[in-house]
Write a structure and sequence with these properties.
With 378 residues, this protein is α/β, with parallel strands linked by helices. The chain has two domains: 279 residues, Rossmann fold; 86 residues, no CATH class. A hairpin with a 2-residue loop joins strand 4 and strand 5.
Protein backbone atom coordinates (compact mmCIF):
# COMPACT_ATOMS: atom_id res chain seq x y z
CA UNK A 1 0.00 0.00 0.00
CA UNK A 2 1.30 3.46 -0.87
CA UNK A 3 -1.04 6.04 0.58
CA UNK A 4 -4.75 6.67 0.15
CA UNK A 5 -6.53 6.38 -3.16
CA UNK A 6 -9.81 7.62 -1.63
CA UNK A 7 -10.48 9.96 1.29
CA UNK A 8 -14.00 10.89 2.33
CA UNK A 9 -13.93 13.92 4.61
CA UNK A 10 -16.86 15.24 6.62
CA UNK A 11 -19.36 14.18 3.95
CA UNK A 12 -22.95 15.39 4.32
CA UNK A 13 -25.76 14.30 1.98
CA UNK A 14 -29.32 15.65 2.08
CA UNK A 15 -32.55 14.92 0.23
CA UNK A 16 -35.69 17.01 -0.06
CA UNK A 17 -38.77 15.02 0.96
CA UNK A 18 -42.43 15.80 1.60
CA UNK A 19 -41.67 15.67 5.34
CA UNK A 20 -38.72 18.06 5.09
CA UNK A 21 -34.99 17.79 4.52
CA UNK A 22 -33.64 14.31 5.23
CA UNK A 23 -30.09 14.52 6.63
CA UNK A 24 -29.10 11.03 5.55
CA UNK A 25 -25.30 11.29 5.71
CA UNK A 26 -23.94 13.30 8.63
CA UNK A 27 -20.20 13.99 8.55
CA UNK A 28 -18.77 10.69 7.29
CA UNK A 29 -14.98 10.26 7.30
CA UNK A 30 -12.97 7.29 6.09
CA UNK A 31 -9.91 6.45 4.01
CA UNK A 32 -9.14 3.67 1.55
CA UNK A 33 -5.47 2.98 0.82
CA UNK A 34 -4.12 1.82 -2.52
CA UNK A 35 -4.38 -1.94 -2.81
CA UNK A 36 -6.51 -2.14 0.35
CA UNK A 37 -9.85 -3.88 0.76
CA UNK A 38 -12.12 -2.13 3.26
CA UNK A 39 -15.72 -2.68 4.28
CA UNK A 40 -18.56 -0.32 5.14
CA UNK A 41 -21.00 -2.24 7.33
CA UNK A 42 -24.30 -1.50 9.01
CA UNK A 43 -27.94 -2.50 9.00
CA UNK A 44 -30.26 -1.79 6.08
CA UNK A 45 -31.14 1.89 5.79
CA UNK A 46 -28.09 3.28 7.58
CA UNK A 47 -26.76 5.12 4.50
CA UNK A 48 -24.13 2.77 3.07
CA UNK A 49 -25.38 2.82 -0.52
CA UNK A 50 -26.03 6.56 -0.40
CA UNK A 51 -22.42 7.11 0.66
CA UNK A 52 -20.92 5.12 -2.21
CA UNK A 53 -23.32 6.57 -4.78
CA UNK A 54 -22.21 10.02 -3.64
CA UNK A 55 -18.61 8.92 -4.24
CA UNK A 56 -19.52 7.71 -7.73
CA UNK A 57 -21.62 10.79 -8.54
CA UNK A 58 -24.84 8.81 -8.94
CA UNK A 59 -27.15 10.94 -6.78
CA UNK A 60 -28.57 13.65 -9.06
CA UNK A 61 -31.44 14.46 -6.68
CA UNK A 62 -29.24 14.83 -3.59
CA UNK A 63 -27.45 17.83 -2.12
CA UNK A 64 -23.94 17.69 -0.69
CA UNK A 65 -23.78 20.86 1.43
CA UNK A 66 -20.48 20.03 3.04
CA UNK A 67 -17.55 17.66 2.70
CA UNK A 68 -14.89 16.44 0.31
CA UNK A 69 -14.37 13.27 -1.71
CA UNK A 70 -10.67 13.10 -2.51
CA UNK A 71 -9.80 10.61 -5.24
CA UNK A 72 -6.10 10.37 -6.11
CA UNK A 73 -5.53 13.72 -4.41
CA UNK A 74 -8.33 15.55 -6.25
CA UNK A 75 -11.68 16.62 -4.83
CA UNK A 76 -14.13 15.09 -7.31
CA UNK A 77 -16.97 17.27 -5.97
CA UNK A 78 -15.25 20.23 -7.62
CA UNK A 79 -15.11 18.56 -11.04
CA UNK A 80 -17.61 19.06 -13.81
CA UNK A 81 -20.15 16.35 -14.58
CA UNK A 82 -18.24 15.32 -17.71
CA UNK A 83 -14.96 15.06 -15.79
CA UNK A 84 -16.55 12.85 -13.14
CA UNK A 85 -18.17 10.77 -15.86
CA UNK A 86 -14.77 10.19 -17.45
CA UNK A 87 -13.24 8.98 -14.19
CA UNK A 88 -16.27 6.86 -13.37
CA UNK A 89 -15.97 5.06 -16.68
CA UNK A 90 -12.23 4.49 -16.69
CA UNK A 91 -10.88 4.45 -13.16
CA UNK A 92 -13.83 3.83 -10.82
CA UNK A 93 -16.28 0.94 -11.18
CA UNK A 94 -19.21 -0.25 -9.11
CA UNK A 95 -20.95 -3.60 -8.82
CA UNK A 96 -24.58 -2.76 -8.22
CA UNK A 97 -26.60 -4.38 -5.47
CA UNK A 98 -29.22 -6.42 -7.30
CA UNK A 99 -28.14 -8.75 -10.14
CA UNK A 100 -31.80 -9.25 -11.11
CA UNK A 101 -32.41 -5.61 -12.06
CA UNK A 102 -28.98 -4.10 -12.78
CA UNK A 103 -28.72 -5.41 -16.34
CA UNK A 104 -30.74 -4.02 -19.25
CA UNK A 105 -33.35 -6.68 -20.09
CA UNK A 106 -33.70 -5.71 -23.78
CA UNK A 107 -30.00 -5.99 -24.66
CA UNK A 108 -27.85 -9.08 -24.72
CA UNK A 109 -24.98 -9.42 -22.28
CA UNK A 110 -22.56 -8.94 -25.15
CA UNK A 111 -24.19 -5.73 -26.34
CA UNK A 112 -23.96 -4.27 -22.85
CA UNK A 113 -20.32 -5.29 -22.43
CA UNK A 114 -19.33 -3.87 -25.82
CA UNK A 115 -21.12 -0.61 -24.99
CA UNK A 116 -19.06 -0.36 -21.80
CA UNK A 117 -15.81 -0.93 -23.69
CA UNK A 118 -16.77 1.40 -26.51
CA UNK A 119 -18.15 4.34 -24.57
CA UNK A 120 -16.67 4.19 -21.06
CA UNK A 121 -15.17 7.50 -20.03
CA UNK A 122 -16.40 9.26 -23.17
CA UNK A 123 -19.02 12.03 -23.40
CA UNK A 124 -22.59 10.86 -22.96
CA UNK A 125 -24.41 9.90 -26.14
CA UNK A 126 -27.88 10.95 -27.12
CA UNK A 127 -30.37 8.18 -27.88
CA UNK A 128 -30.15 9.08 -31.58
CA UNK A 129 -26.35 8.74 -31.62
CA UNK A 130 -26.51 5.44 -29.78
CA UNK A 131 -29.13 4.03 -32.18
CA UNK A 132 -27.13 5.23 -35.17
CA UNK A 133 -24.14 3.32 -33.87
CA UNK A 134 -26.28 0.23 -33.27
CA UNK A 135 -27.73 0.08 -36.77
CA UNK A 136 -24.46 1.03 -38.46
CA UNK A 137 -22.03 -1.40 -39.95
CA UNK A 138 -19.95 -1.47 -36.80
CA UNK A 139 -16.37 -0.36 -36.31
CA UNK A 140 -13.28 -2.45 -36.89
CA UNK A 141 -12.68 -2.51 -33.14
CA UNK A 142 -15.96 -4.29 -32.36
CA UNK A 143 -14.31 -7.66 -32.95
CA UNK A 144 -11.59 -6.78 -30.47
CA UNK A 145 -14.21 -5.64 -27.95
CA UNK A 146 -16.06 -8.93 -28.40
CA UNK A 147 -12.90 -10.93 -27.74
CA UNK A 148 -12.10 -8.90 -24.63
CA UNK A 149 -15.62 -9.31 -23.29
CA UNK A 150 -15.65 -13.06 -23.85
CA UNK A 151 -12.24 -13.40 -22.19
CA UNK A 152 -13.50 -11.48 -19.17
CA UNK A 153 -16.57 -13.73 -18.93
CA UNK A 154 -14.19 -16.65 -18.87
CA UNK A 155 -12.10 -14.95 -16.18
CA UNK A 156 -15.14 -14.85 -13.88
CA UNK A 157 -15.46 -18.62 -14.36
CA UNK A 158 -18.47 -18.68 -16.66
CA UNK A 159 -18.17 -22.08 -18.31
CA UNK A 160 -19.77 -21.12 -21.64
CA UNK A 161 -18.73 -17.48 -22.15
CA UNK A 162 -19.76 -17.26 -25.81
CA UNK A 163 -23.25 -18.53 -25.05
CA UNK A 164 -23.63 -16.10 -22.15
CA UNK A 165 -22.26 -13.28 -24.32
CA UNK A 166 -25.17 -13.85 -26.74
CA UNK A 167 -27.79 -14.37 -24.00
CA UNK A 168 -30.33 -11.95 -22.58
CA UNK A 169 -30.28 -11.43 -18.78
CA UNK A 170 -33.61 -13.25 -18.38
CA UNK A 171 -31.96 -16.41 -19.68
CA UNK A 172 -29.39 -16.42 -16.89
CA UNK A 173 -29.54 -17.47 -13.25
CA UNK A 174 -28.93 -15.01 -10.40
CA UNK A 175 -25.39 -16.30 -9.90
CA UNK A 176 -24.63 -15.95 -13.61
CA UNK A 177 -25.96 -12.39 -13.66
CA UNK A 178 -23.81 -11.52 -10.66
CA UNK A 179 -20.74 -12.85 -12.44
CA UNK A 180 -21.68 -10.81 -15.52
CA UNK A 181 -21.90 -7.67 -13.34
CA UNK A 182 -18.46 -8.41 -11.92
CA UNK A 183 -17.09 -8.93 -15.44
CA UNK A 184 -18.55 -5.60 -16.60
CA UNK A 185 -17.13 -3.78 -13.57
CA UNK A 186 -13.65 -5.21 -14.21
CA UNK A 187 -13.58 -4.63 -17.97
CA UNK A 188 -11.76 -1.31 -17.63
CA UNK A 189 -9.36 -2.69 -14.97
CA UNK A 190 -10.37 0.05 -12.49
CA UNK A 191 -8.14 1.39 -9.76
CA UNK A 192 -11.13 1.65 -7.40
CA UNK A 193 -13.92 -0.92 -7.24
CA UNK A 194 -17.02 -0.52 -5.09
CA UNK A 195 -19.00 -3.71 -4.47
CA UNK A 196 -22.46 -2.91 -3.10
CA UNK A 197 -23.84 -6.04 -1.43
CA UNK A 198 -22.39 -8.31 -4.16
CA UNK A 199 -24.06 -11.38 -2.62
CA UNK A 200 -27.60 -9.98 -2.60
CA UNK A 201 -30.27 -12.47 -3.76
CA UNK A 202 -27.74 -15.31 -4.07
CA UNK A 203 -27.77 -18.60 -2.22
CA UNK A 204 -24.98 -19.24 0.29
CA UNK A 205 -22.89 -21.48 -1.97
CA UNK A 206 -23.07 -19.15 -4.96
CA UNK A 207 -22.37 -16.14 -2.77
CA UNK A 208 -19.23 -17.79 -1.41
CA UNK A 209 -17.98 -18.59 -4.91
CA UNK A 210 -18.70 -15.08 -6.20
CA UNK A 211 -16.89 -13.40 -3.29
CA UNK A 212 -13.89 -15.72 -3.54
CA UNK A 213 -13.73 -15.09 -7.27
CA UNK A 214 -13.92 -11.33 -6.82
CA UNK A 215 -11.18 -11.46 -4.21
CA UNK A 216 -8.87 -13.37 -6.58
CA UNK A 217 -9.54 -11.03 -9.50
CA UNK A 218 -8.90 -7.79 -7.61
CA UNK A 219 -5.77 -9.22 -6.00
CA UNK A 220 -4.36 -10.00 -9.45
CA UNK A 221 -4.99 -6.39 -10.55
CA UNK A 222 -4.01 -4.71 -7.22
CA UNK A 223 -7.37 -2.94 -7.20
CA UNK A 224 -8.56 -0.98 -4.16
CA UNK A 225 -11.95 -2.32 -3.07
CA UNK A 226 -14.71 -0.94 -0.88
CA UNK A 227 -17.27 -3.58 0.10
CA UNK A 228 -20.74 -2.54 1.21
CA UNK A 229 -22.47 -5.15 3.35
CA UNK A 230 -24.73 -5.69 6.33
CA UNK A 231 -23.09 -9.06 7.00
CA UNK A 232 -20.19 -8.86 9.44
CA UNK A 233 -19.19 -12.42 8.60
CA UNK A 234 -18.56 -11.40 4.99
CA UNK A 235 -16.77 -8.22 6.08
CA UNK A 236 -14.48 -10.26 8.30
CA UNK A 237 -13.57 -12.61 5.50
CA UNK A 238 -12.97 -10.13 2.66
CA UNK A 239 -11.69 -6.90 4.25
CA UNK A 240 -8.52 -5.54 5.82
CA UNK A 241 -10.30 -2.66 7.54
CA UNK A 242 -13.90 -2.09 8.66
CA UNK A 243 -15.95 1.10 9.02
CA UNK A 244 -19.13 0.56 11.04
CA UNK A 245 -21.97 2.87 10.00
CA UNK A 246 -25.14 3.77 11.87
CA UNK A 247 -27.81 6.25 10.75
CA UNK A 248 -25.52 8.08 8.34
CA UNK A 249 -22.50 8.26 10.65
CA UNK A 250 -19.32 6.23 11.09
CA UNK A 251 -19.41 5.04 14.71
CA UNK A 252 -16.33 2.80 14.73
CA UNK A 253 -13.26 2.23 12.55
CA UNK A 254 -10.59 -0.42 13.05
CA UNK A 255 -8.50 -3.08 11.33
CA UNK A 256 -10.69 -6.14 10.82
CA UNK A 257 -8.89 -8.42 13.27
CA UNK A 258 -8.96 -5.81 16.03
CA UNK A 259 -12.60 -4.90 15.49
CA UNK A 260 -13.64 -8.50 16.06
CA UNK A 261 -11.28 -9.11 18.96
CA UNK A 262 -12.07 -5.82 20.73
CA UNK A 263 -15.33 -4.18 19.52
CA UNK A 264 -15.94 -0.91 21.37
CA UNK A 265 -19.10 0.83 20.20
CA UNK A 266 -22.34 -0.59 21.68
CA UNK A 267 -23.78 -0.74 18.16
CA UNK A 268 -20.87 -2.85 16.89
CA UNK A 269 -21.25 -5.17 19.85
CA UNK A 270 -24.98 -5.39 19.17
CA UNK A 271 -24.36 -6.35 15.54
CA UNK A 272 -21.97 -9.10 16.63
CA UNK A 273 -24.42 -10.37 19.22
CA UNK A 274 -27.11 -10.51 16.51
CA UNK A 275 -25.27 -13.10 14.43
CA UNK A 276 -27.14 -16.44 14.55
CA UNK A 277 -25.14 -19.29 16.04
CA UNK A 278 -25.43 -23.02 15.43
CA UNK A 279 -24.03 -23.70 18.91
CA UNK A 280 -26.15 -21.19 20.86
CA UNK A 281 -29.23 -19.36 19.58
CA UNK A 282 -30.48 -17.19 16.72
CA UNK A 283 -28.97 -14.00 18.14
CA UNK A 284 -30.31 -11.35 20.47
CA UNK A 285 -30.81 -8.49 18.01
CA UNK A 286 -30.93 -4.77 18.74
CA UNK A 287 -34.19 -3.31 19.97
CA UNK A 288 -35.60 -0.16 18.38
CA UNK A 289 -35.17 1.31 14.93
CA UNK A 290 -33.23 3.92 12.99
CA UNK A 291 -34.05 7.56 13.79
CA UNK A 292 -36.09 9.77 11.47
CA UNK A 293 -33.62 11.43 9.10
CA UNK A 294 -35.87 14.48 8.77
CA UNK A 295 -35.66 15.04 12.54
CA UNK A 296 -32.42 13.39 13.72
CA UNK A 297 -31.20 13.59 17.33
CA UNK A 298 -28.82 16.41 18.25
CA UNK A 299 -26.43 14.10 20.07
CA UNK A 300 -25.80 10.41 19.53
CA UNK A 301 -28.11 8.93 16.90
CA UNK A 302 -27.86 5.52 18.57
CA UNK A 303 -28.78 6.77 22.06
CA UNK A 304 -32.45 5.66 21.92
CA UNK A 305 -31.35 2.06 21.28
CA UNK A 306 -28.23 1.98 23.44
CA UNK A 307 -28.43 0.06 26.75
CA UNK A 308 -25.65 2.24 28.20
CA UNK A 309 -26.93 5.68 27.19
CA UNK A 310 -27.35 8.53 29.66
CA UNK A 311 -29.53 11.65 29.16
CA UNK A 312 -26.46 13.66 28.16
CA UNK A 313 -25.89 11.34 25.19
CA UNK A 314 -28.93 12.79 23.43
CA UNK A 315 -27.52 16.32 23.78
CA UNK A 316 -23.79 16.07 22.97
CA UNK A 317 -22.54 14.62 19.70
CA UNK A 318 -19.92 11.85 20.15
CA UNK A 319 -17.12 12.66 17.71
CA UNK A 320 -14.80 9.84 16.73
CA UNK A 321 -11.96 9.38 19.23
CA UNK A 322 -8.78 7.36 18.79
CA UNK A 323 -8.72 4.79 21.56
CA UNK A 324 -5.60 3.16 20.14
CA UNK A 325 -3.58 3.41 16.94
CA UNK A 326 -5.86 2.81 13.95
CA UNK A 327 -8.95 2.26 16.12
CA UNK A 328 -11.51 5.04 16.54
CA UNK A 329 -14.95 5.05 18.15
CA UNK A 330 -17.71 7.64 18.42
CA UNK A 331 -19.11 7.00 21.90
CA UNK A 332 -19.03 8.93 25.18
CA UNK A 333 -18.02 5.75 27.03
CA UNK A 334 -14.50 6.21 25.62
CA UNK A 335 -11.83 8.85 26.02
CA UNK A 336 -9.06 9.72 23.61
CA UNK A 337 -7.86 12.36 21.17
CA UNK A 338 -10.05 13.38 18.25
CA UNK A 339 -9.60 11.08 15.28
CA UNK A 340 -9.90 14.09 12.94
CA UNK A 341 -8.25 17.45 13.57
CA UNK A 342 -11.38 19.53 12.95
CA UNK A 343 -13.09 17.84 15.91
CA UNK A 344 -10.36 18.55 18.50
CA UNK A 345 -12.10 21.50 20.17
CA UNK A 346 -15.49 19.79 20.37
CA UNK A 347 -14.10 16.47 21.56
CA UNK A 348 -12.32 18.17 24.45
CA UNK A 349 -15.73 19.09 25.88
CA UNK A 350 -16.93 15.47 25.99
CA UNK A 351 -19.23 14.28 28.73
CA UNK A 352 -18.43 11.68 31.38
CA UNK A 353 -20.91 8.81 31.50
CA UNK A 354 -18.49 6.32 32.96
CA UNK A 355 -16.32 3.58 31.49
CA UNK A 356 -17.55 0.76 29.24
CA UNK A 357 -19.21 -1.68 31.66
CA UNK A 358 -18.13 -4.77 29.70
CA UNK A 359 -14.43 -3.99 30.16
CA UNK A 360 -14.68 -4.97 33.83
CA UNK A 361 -16.32 -8.34 33.05
CA UNK A 362 -13.34 -10.62 32.75
CA UNK A 363 -15.57 -13.67 32.40
CA UNK A 364 -17.51 -12.29 29.43
CA UNK A 365 -16.72 -13.92 26.10
CA UNK A 366 -15.64 -11.49 23.41
CA UNK A 367 -18.18 -11.12 20.63
CA UNK A 368 -15.55 -12.22 18.14
CA UNK A 369 -15.56 -15.65 19.77
CA UNK A 370 -19.11 -16.13 18.56
CA UNK A 371 -18.57 -15.23 14.92
CA UNK A 372 -18.77 -18.20 12.59
CA UNK A 373 -17.90 -18.70 8.96
CA UNK A 374 -20.06 -17.09 6.31
CA UNK A 375 -21.84 -20.28 5.35
CA UNK A 376 -22.95 -20.98 8.94
CA UNK A 377 -24.52 -17.58 9.49
CA UNK A 378 -27.56 -18.18 7.34
Amino acid sequence: MSGPILEVRNLHVEFDTYDGVAEVINGVDFTLDRGETAALVGETGCGKSVTVKAIMGLLPSARIPEGEIIYKGENVLELSDSQRHARRGKEMSMIMQDPMTSLNPVLTVGEQMIDVLKWQGKPRLSVTEWLRDKVGSGSSSDGEYRDRAIRMLGNVEISAPERVFNSYPVELSGGMRQRVLIAIALLSEPDLLIADEPGTALDVTTEAKVLDLLDELVEERDTSVLYITHDLGIAREVSDFINVMYAGEIVEQAPTTELFSSPQHPYTRGLLDSIPMLSTDIGTGIEGHLPDYTDPPTGCRFASRCPHAEPECTEVFPHLRETRSGHAVGCHLFDGPAAYSRDQATTSTSIDIGAPPWESRSDEAAPSDTVVNRGSEQ
